[in-house]
Amino acid sequence: MRIIQRGEGDPLVFIQGLHGRWEYAQLTVDALAKHFRVITFSLNDEPSASCAFDASRPFDSYAAQVGAALEASGCTRAVICGQSFGGLVALRFAAMNPSRSAALILGSTPGPGWHLKRRHEIYARLPWLLGPLFFLEAPFRASGELAAALPSLRDRAAFSLNMLRAMVRGPLSPARMAARARRIVAYDVLADCARITVPTLVLTGEAALDHVVPVEGTSKYATVIRGARSAVLERTGHLGSLTRPDEFAALIRDFAQALPHAA
Length: 263
What we know:
Elements: E1 4-6, E2 11-15, H1 26-32, E3 37-40, H2 58-72, E4 78-83, H3 85-96, E5 101-107, H4 118-125, H5 127-149, H6 153-169, H7 174-186, H8 189-193, E6 200-204, H9 215-219, H10 221-224, E7 229-232, H11 240-243, H12 245-257, H13 259-262
C-alpha cells in the first residue's frame, strides 16, 4: 500500500473525502504536519492506492486500510481524522478499534440520514455521462465560500492553481466517486455512533457557506456520540480544511493537546 507520511510528533491518520485521492488534501496534510506525524493515503478503491478493496463490505474494507496503514507505519494508536466522506471511514474505524484510536475527528461529515439531492442521484447512476455536469457546478457551489475564506483575488487564484495541479497528479474518477456516494446511504452511522468511546471532535464550517454537506446534519454527531465536542471553522464551509488549513489544523491540535486532561 502506498502511504504518505509528513511531520513529527503524535501520529494522526488523515482520511480523504469523496474524491479518494490524497493529492487533493496536500494543503491540509502539510498544515497538520506542523503539529503531528501525519499518515495518509488514497482510499483503497483507487487503483493508485495499491491496496485490496472488498466492494461487498466497503466501510469495513476502508477501515481495514486505516489499520494496515497504522501497522505499516509502526503505530499502535493514533488520532483518526476524516474529512467529509473520510469522516465516515474514521467513524467506522474508531467504532471497530477503540484501543487503536486516540481520538476521533469528524470534519464536515455527512450526518445521520444524509441523502443525495435528486439531480446528484441521477449523476450517481450515470457518472460518465453526467459526472462532468457535477464538476461544472463546483465553481458555482464554492464561489461564496472561496470569497469568504480567501478575500484576496491572488489567494483565490493560487488556490485554484493548486487544485488544478492536484487534478493533473491525481485524475478523478466520476464512477468511483458515484459509488462512494451511494455507499453513504447504506451505512448505518447511528449504530456506530453508539459504539464510539473515544474523545470526539465534530468540525464544521459556517452553515451559510457549506453547500455540499448540510452543517445541521454534521452537527448531529455532537449529540449522538457520547461526550463529543463541536467547533466551527469560521469564514469557510465544506472546503475549510483546504481554504483555511492552518486554522483547521490548529483546532485539531488544541483538541488533541487537551486529551490527557479530558481523560
